[in-house]
Amino acid sequence: MFVVLGLWLLVFPAALSAPAREQCTTGKNKLLLVSFDGFRWDYDRDVDTPNLDKMAMEGVKAAYMTPPFLTITSPSHFTLLTGRYIENHGVIHNIWFNITTQEKKQYYMTQFVDEYWDNGSLPIWITAQRQGLKTGSHHFPGTAATYQNEKVYKETVEPIFYNYTNETVWRENVNTVIGQWFKNEDLDFISLYFGDPDEVGHKYGPDSPERREVIKKVDRTVGYLRETVEKNGLTDKLNIIITADHGMSTVFKGENVNEIILSNIPGFSLRDLKFHMVDYGACGMLLPKDGMFDKVYNALKGGHPNLHVYKKEDMPERLHYSKHPRLLPIILIADPGYVINGFYTFQTNKGEHGYDNEVMDMKAFFRAVGPDFHNNLLVGPFESVNVYSLMCHLLGIQPEVNDGSLDNTRHMLLSNGLSCVLKAPESILQNLFIGLSAVAGFLLLVFVVVTSNNVYKRHKGNQSRTEDTSDEDETKDDLKQTTF
Ligand SMILES: [Zn+2]
C-alpha cells in the first residue's frame, strides 16, 4: 500500500503543494502601446474626458509618469521602447549632428539615420520578433530605422510634411492598427503614435483653450479606439497602454522676462565654440574650441539667474544624461519657462518641454486597460524607464538589459507580475522534487521498520533461548512494532 502511495505522490505530486494556482500573466494577450506626444499628466483636469474616465474605471490610472531627461520626443520614446536611460541608449536628442562637418538633421530626417538609433540598445519590436512574435509600429519615433539588420515587421513611417492633427486620419490610423494589423494579420505588439497634443501645446501654450480642445479630440480618439477594439472582438485579448513622452510648460514672455541670450552674457562668445546645439528650447550643448573650455564655462557659469551650466561629467546623476560619448562637454539647462538662445530670441512657441524631469510640468500621462490589468486602480508615480519591463512581461518575452524593473509596475497587474510561462517549468521541478522526497521518505521508513523488526526478532530469539516465552506473545509484539 505504501509503495502505491509513494508512486501516486510521484505521479501526482501537486497533491502536496496544497494552495490552488494563483492568477498569472499568460503572455498570450496582444499589446498596444499608444503615445500621444506631449500629453502632460494633468491635461484632463479641466476638460470633460468621458472616454479617458471610462478607461480609468476599467483599468489603471497612474498619478503621473516621470520621463527621462532630456524630456524631448525621440530620446523619451526610445526609453519607452528600450527601458534604458538616454545616456545608455544614446538617442540623446531629436536632432542628429556631426561636430566635424557641422551638419545637423532635423527631427524628421534623423528618423532615417540608422546608426543614430541602432547603437547597442534594441527596441522591443526587434526583441519580440526574435522570440517569435509579430510586431508593428505606426508613426512611432524610431520606426524607420534598421536595428542589427532587422526592421519592425509591419511599419508605417509618416510622410514628410505630414499633418499630425487631422482627426479623420487619426481614426484611419486606428482602423489600420486594430482592424488590419491586430485582427486580420494577427500581430502581437504594435506601437502607435499621435503628434498631438504636443503640436497644439507648443503653438498655443498648455493653458490655452486650444489645448483644452485638443484633449477633447484625444478623448474622442480613445473612445473610437476602444469601440474599434470591441467591434473586432479583441477586448479580452488586448492590453492597451496609453502614455506620452513628456509634458509641456508655458514659456515666459513680456517686458519683465530676462530672456536667456548667450551672446549677451559678458565674457561669452559663440566664436569660442567649435560646435553648438542651442536654439532648441530648454536645453543646449556646447563644444568649445581647443583651449577655450575654461573661458566658455567660466563665462556662462552664473551668467544668467535661470541658466544652469554643467560640465558633462558634473551633471546630476539622477538625470542620467552624462555618460554617452555623443553628449557635448558643456550642457545647459534652463529653468521652466525659459529657453536658451544664441544670438537673439528665436522663440515663437508659447509652450516648451525639455526641462528637468523633476519639474511637474514635464510629467507625462499614463493609463492602461485590458485583460491583465486591474480595474479602477489608481497607482502612484513611476519612471517611464519601467514601461519596457512591464511590456516584456505582458508579452511573455525575455527583456534585454535595461534600467527599469517590473517591481515598479507589477502592482498594476492582476497577476502581480507572476508569469504563467516562467512558473510552469519551475513548478514541474518543484513538484518532482516533492514527489521524489516523499518516495525517498517512504523507502527510508520501510528500511527502518524492517531493520528494527529484524533486530527485535534476533533479540527476542536470544531471549526465548533463555526464557520460556510463547510464540503467540512474540507475534503480538511483532504486530505492535509494525503498526503505524
Ligand atoms: Zn514629444
UniProtKB/TrEMBL annotation:
Keywords: Membrane, Signal, Transmembrane, Transmembrane helix. Pfam families: Phosphodiest. Residues 1-17 form the signal peptide. CDD domains: Enpp. InterPro entries: Alkaline_phosphatase_core_sf, Phosphodiest/P_Trfase. The chain crosses the membrane at residues 432-456. Residues 458-484 are annotated as: Disordered. PANTHER family: ECTONUCLEOTIDE PYROPHOSPHATASE/PHOSPHODIESTERASE, ECTONUCLEOTIDE PYROPHOSPHATASE_PHOSPHODIESTERASE FAMILY MEMBER 7. This is Ectonucleotide pyrophosphatase/phosphodiesterase family member 7. It comes from Triplophysa tibetana. The lineage of its organism: Eukaryota, Metazoa, Chordata, Craniata, Vertebrata.
